[in-house]
Amino acid sequence: VWIFGYGSLVWRPGFEFTSRKVGFIRGYSRRFWQGDTFHRGSERMPGRVVTLLEDCGACTWGVAYEVRGEQIPASLQYLNMREAVLGGYDTKLVKFHPQETDAEEPILALVYIATPQNPSYLGPASEEDIAAQIIVSSGCAGHNIEYLLRLADFMRYFCPQAEDKHLFSIEEALVSILPCLYHTEESVEET
């Protein structure tokens, strides 16, 4: 079984797997439209995490994990709790295209997608509003800022050829709100 991750699963799958491949799926855009009241936010201050929006001309980059044998029930049970029960995500099968140039045919992969029907769905907002919400949100897995920055770093380092204007616009809005955060990090690295 292959499982496609496009949010925190790209850096923290949380389950055992046999192999992993960077690549993309077609027909979806990644959006920070899902609320999170557990991992990256609270009931009082929901965080913003990503979901997929059907978009016929788009593609979303991420990581596909291959799970085999006893890994299958353990990973699906873990993901059902993490994504479906706590996150409000549904599952779909998608065609995953590995990044390697000599890659075989697309791989059928399971993906978790939050739909507008789930109670935590927040929907669209301006990049500035999303960044402002991310700045004030934190949950049991850490601060919502970490989620945004790790996802942006993944895209920069593993998929430099791919565009994700939504993601990078939110990161840019966050930097404009919190410029001292980045200037402090740069001066620490220089010393």
From TrEMBL:
<dbReference type="GO" id="GO:0016740">
    <property type="term" value="F:transferase activity"/>
</dbReference>
<keyword id="KW-0834">Unfolded protein response</keyword>
<dbReference type="GO" id="GO:0006986">
    <property type="term" value="P:response to unfolded protein"/>
</dbReference>
<keyword id="KW-0333">Golgi apparatus</keyword>
<dbReference type="InterPro" id="IPR013024">
    <property type="entry name" value="GGCT-like"/>
</dbReference>
<protein>
    <recommendedName>
        <fullName>Gamma-glutamylcyclotransferase</fullName>
        <ecNumber>4.3.2.7</ecNumber>
    </recommendedName>
</protein>
<dbReference type="GO" id="GO:0005794">
    <property type="term" value="C:Golgi apparatus"/>
</dbReference>
<dbReference type="InterPro" id="IPR036568">
    <property type="entry name" value="GGCT-like_sf"/>
</dbReference>
<keyword id="KW-0914">Notch signaling pathway</keyword>
<dbReference type="GO" id="GO:0003839">
    <property type="term" value="F:gamma-glutamylcyclotransferase activity"/>
</dbReference>
<dbReference type="GO" id="GO:0006751">
    <property type="term" value="P:glutathione catabolic process"/>
</dbReference>
<comment type="similarity">
    <text>Belongs to the gamma-glutamylcyclotransferase family. ChaC subfamily.</text>
</comment>
<dbReference type="Pfam" id="PF04752">
    <property type="entry name" value="ChaC"/>
</dbReference>
<keyword id="KW-0053">Apoptosis</keyword>
<dbReference type="GO" id="GO:0005829">
    <property type="term" value="C:cytosol"/>
</dbReference>
<keyword id="KW-0524">Neurogenesis</keyword>
<keyword id="KW-0808">Transferase</keyword>
<keyword id="KW-0456">Lyase</keyword>
<keyword id="KW-0963">Cytoplasm</keyword>
<comment type="function">
    <text>Catalyzes the cleavage of glutathione into 5-oxo-L-proline and a Cys-Gly dipeptide. Acts specifically on glutathione, but not on other gamma-glutamyl peptides. Glutathione depletion is an important factor for apoptosis initiation and execution. Acts as a pro-apoptotic component of the unfolded protein response pathway by mediating the pro-apoptotic effects of the ATF4-ATF3-DDIT3/CHOP cascade.</text>
</comment>
<dbReference type="GO" id="GO:0007399">
    <property type="term" value="P:nervous system development"/>
</dbReference>
<dbReference type="GO" id="GO:0061928">
    <property type="term" value="F:glutathione specific gamma-glutamylcyclotransferase activity"/>
</dbReference>
<dbReference type="GO" id="GO:0006915">
    <property type="term" value="P:apoptotic process"/>
</dbReference>
<dbReference type="InterPro" id="IPR006840">
    <property type="entry name" value="ChaC"/>
</dbReference>
<dbReference type="GO" id="GO:0007219">
    <property type="term" value="P:Notch signaling pathway"/>
</dbReference>
